[in-house]
């Protein structure tokens, strides 16, 4: 079996990154991720204080970020706290950048 071409390898990396791109494809979700960068975790109410949207709308965006694999949720008492879980996404983004810089 032959080695994948530059294009094929790039497509493979983009396919792996696709859920992250979809999760980050909205400015509100980008704001949520930026907010959580320097926080250990926040609940929906705490996040909604910083995002000019209703709590249900913020919850919807949090759900999308969780489905994309960018957030982890942990229940503490009656509240759910969200924290960034981006190590895998960062690793894949680094692979893509390194691949483009070195291979193409």
Automatic annotation (TrEMBL):
SMART domains, sorted: HTH_ARSR (SM00418), HTH_CRP (SM00419)
PROSITE patterns (UniProt xref): HTH_ARSR_2
UniProt entry tagged with the keyword Transcription: yes
Stored Pfam families: HTH_5
Any GO MF annotation of the entry: DNA-binding transcription factor activity
Annotated ranges, domain HTH arsR-type: 9-104
Keywords per UniProt: DNA-binding, Transcription, Transcription regulation
Gene3D superfamilies attached to this UniProt entry: Winged helix-like DNA-binding domain superfamily/Winged helix DNA-binding domain
InterPro entries for the chain: ArsR-like_HTH, HTH_ArsR_DNA-bd_dom, HTH_CRP, HTH_MetalResp_TranReg, WH-like_DNA-bd_sf, WH_DNA-bd_sf
Keyword DNA repair: no
UniProt xrefs under NCBIfam families: HTH_metalloreg
Protein name: ArsR family transcriptional regulator
Organism expressing this protein natively: Brevibacillus gelatini
């Amino acid at each position: 079996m032959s080695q994948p071409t530059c294009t094929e390898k790039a497509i493979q990396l983009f396919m792996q990154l696709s859920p992250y791109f979809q999760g980050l494809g909205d400015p509100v979700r980008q704001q949520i991720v930026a907010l959580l960068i320097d926080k250990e975790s926040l609940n929906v109410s705490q996040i909604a204080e910083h995002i000019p949207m209703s709590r249900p709308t913020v919850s919807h965006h949090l759900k999308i970020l969780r489905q994309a694999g960018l957030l982890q949720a942990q229940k503490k008492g009656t509240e759910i706290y969200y924290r960034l879980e981006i190590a895998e996404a960062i690793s894949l983004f680094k692979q893509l950048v390194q691949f483009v810089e070195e291979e193409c």
